[in-house]
Design a protein that fits this description.
By secondary structure, the protein is mostly beta strands. It has one domain: Immunoglobulin-like (Sandwich). 14% of the residues lie in helices and 48% in strands. It is elongated. The relative contact order is 0.27.
């Protein structure tokens, strides 16, 4: 009988004092565009494999946080294609992250490197982000 009572007491205690869950929050990204990197960022750009020259671009847009809490560590996902509809980043949809998104609409930017042999203009599709309502990394 004591064991049942103690188990029930612990269950109630844990139910009352459980810390709030840090849930994944979806962020709408819109007005997505890109521009050439400033010369100081573009100098010496190479693709991730290190095997060739690359062009540097800054992807810009707006992020809409529809919650009343700041969202942290939001991963940016999207697809980028060249002028021939060939993917820029093979098998990779995570493009970067946004450290902090306050409630409402805010601007964001992301640096990408594109192999120099892929023709422009770039096509930016299916951009979205997801982050956490509490800080995850410290």
């Amino acid at each position: 009988m004591k064991v049942i009572f103690i188990s029930c007491l612990i269950s109630v205690f844990l139910w009352i004092f459980t810390p709030p869950a840090v849930a994944l929050t979806q962020i709408k990204l819109f007005d997505i565009s890109y521009k050439d990197c400033p010369p100081e960022l573009a100098e010496g750009a190479v693709i991730s494999s290190g095997s060739g020259a690359a062009n540097c671009f800054i992807v810009t847009g707006k992020a809409e946080n529809g919650t009343y809490k700041t969202v942290y560590d939001a991963d940016i996902f999207g697809r980028i294609y060249d002028a021939n509809n060939d993917p820029i980043l093979q098998n990779r949809t995570r493009l970067g992250s946004i450290a902090e998104i306050p409630p409402g609409i805010s601007d964001f930017e992301l640096r990408i490197s594109v192999p120099a042999n892929q023709p422009t203009p770039l096509k930016l599709k299916q951009f979205k982000a997801a982050g956490f309502s509490g800080q995850v990394r410290k």
